[in-house]
Amino acid sequence: MFNIEEELKKLPREPGVYIMRDDKDVILYVGKAVNLHNRVRSYFRENIGRGPMIDKMVSLIARFEYIVTDSELEALVLENNLIKENSPKYNTLLKDDKTYPYIKVTVGEEYPRILFSRTMKKDKSKYYGPYTSAAAVKDTIELLNKLYCLRTCRRSLPRDIGMDRPCLNYHIKQCMAPCQGYVSKEQYRRQVEQALEFLNGNYNFILKDLEAKMKAASEALDFEAAAGYRDLYNSVRSVAQKQKITDSVGEDKDVIALYRDETEAVVQVFFVRDGKLIGREHYYMTNVSENSEADILENFVKQFYAGTPFIPRELMLQYEIGDGELIERWLTERKGARVYLRVPKIGSKEKLVELAAQNARHILEQDRERLKREEGRTVGAVKEIAGVLGLSHIERMEAFDISNINGFENVGSMIVFEKGRPKPSDYRKFRIRTVSGPDDYACMREVLTRRFRHGLEESRELDEKKLDRDFGSFTRFPDLLMMDGGRGQVNIALSVLRELHIDIPVCGMVKDDNHRTRGLYFNNVELPIDTHSEGFKLITRIQDEAHRFAIEYHRSLRSKAQVRSVLDDIPGVGPARRKALMRHFRSIEEIKAATVEELAALPELNRRAAEEIYDFFRQKNDRSGTGPEKS
Known about the structure:
Blueprint: H1 4-9, E1 16-21, E2 27-33, H2 36-42, H3 52-60, E3 63-68, H4 72-86, E4 93-94, E5 102-105, E6 114-117, E7 126-128, H5 134-148, H6 168-171, H7 185-199, H8 204-219, H9 223-242, E8 244-245, E9 253-260, E10 265-273, E11 276-286, H10 293-307, E12 314-317, H11 324-335, E13 340-342, H12 347-377, H13 379-389, E14 396-405, E15 408-418, E16 421-422, E17 428-431, H14 440-465, E18 480-483, H15 487-499, E19 506-511, E20 517-522, E21 525-528, H16 534-567, H17 575-585, H18 588-593, H19 596-600, H20 607-624
Parallel strand pairs: 9-12, 12-13, 14-18, 18-19
Antiparallel strand pairs: 1-2, 1-3, 4-11, 5-6, 5-7, 8-11, 9-10, 10-11, 14-15, 15-16, 15-17, 19-20, 20-21
Helix pairs in contact: 4-11, 5-9, 8-9, 12-13, 13-16, 14-15
């Protein structure tokens, strides 16, 4: 038994990381401390104005543990790693976990290439970025390869020179074919150097060169070439215009500011590379209600720069942060060069930080409006349905549907909506076992019985093992069962629930003669619902989703049955050979048309098996009267 009072006495007066856990051993909070003894004990003193969220966390602590480190810097690194790995409920967390693209130039190769990369490694390549748009990076790489006719293949050069024919890019004049030795290493390198100049932002020379080539081609009446140069010229100019100069000194820096409300904060980052604003991105921080703006900013800087591969020389911040000097040391160590945290007070830099803060405010306000609309079509719609039915609370709704074709391959679907949103992880498929023929009522009875009986059994097992009910897929019962139909389907559901002694409200989604929903059948009464309301739209989405899920499952079973009916009738063809045949020939028609030699060429088939397959289809054709005519 963990005795908190006794364990508090054992805390060392050293730097380290502490971990708070609840009675289920779930991590509640991770923090670092210069002095573990003082910091951890402070949580268990009488309330000293910590705020309701921290008080709630402390009330849940069943035990704590700690890891001693050699320095506060080590504690900072370990804290970041543990927060990222465990996402504790009471830590202020960075919601986004994005990776940003780079342009990679493999200057370490004898014939370099320009590549797209999501990581920046310590190799002999040059990296440009990070950029905020993967599409823009791909467009830039494509433009550079067109401009300078650089190779895009993976061949190892010069080892593979002359070993294969040149690719299509050579024939359409978008590669100089170093793979054939058509260009010297020196000439190819000059082209790569010009591409690097482009990536460094030196566009003027390129624009003048393209303009001269365009005019020369036009004067020579080579209008096709002139049009090509014109398109390249426009592409380069478009890229150049997107680069907004923000500083006369060509340095790398990130400009970071935030805006917050009661529950969330948005952090806006401007990425400045070589003195140019190359992009911006925003990030959400949660659990901010009892944190100051400076604390939120500090948590963002620690979590974001623990994961990003590129660290600029300078971070321009909106507020002074508490661990500023320590974080500077940590970032300097990660980068391998001096990193500065600065809070500009006057001039253009201060205005840039203010601009980032304004952007963060606009994003949060726009999201409020979006969330308000989204809430109307989800939670608001659920409340509307509850009002029509006279129910006090609905959160989870389950709907079922049956699919078959004249009783062939009867299947059922179960879909789940929580708070007005689909929850695909809880969807389930049922292959009907006890019903043959087109009897939707009997099929529905089987599906509902299996679903709820399974849920009861899972619940008993979890109770015996003293586990949380969320561990079981069927243990969460709905607040409302929605049947695709009227009185008949509702009565089937109610009878199943009575037999299993389960009390769940059941309503039917009643359709008119045109198969359109017109109302809800509940407690033996058909209730009208406004067809223009959000509640009605949600009912329609639930019906459509249940139908879609059942149809897709039925279609997949039909296709499998069709494949099996043809190939598995052939002597000597089992699952492995069937799979090999379909993988190689793609269709039954191709298998039918194959010769014995073509069939025997598959590693999975021997000569005898190939002959049996060949003979099977010829005999089948002869029996059906579709075989070749005999003279």
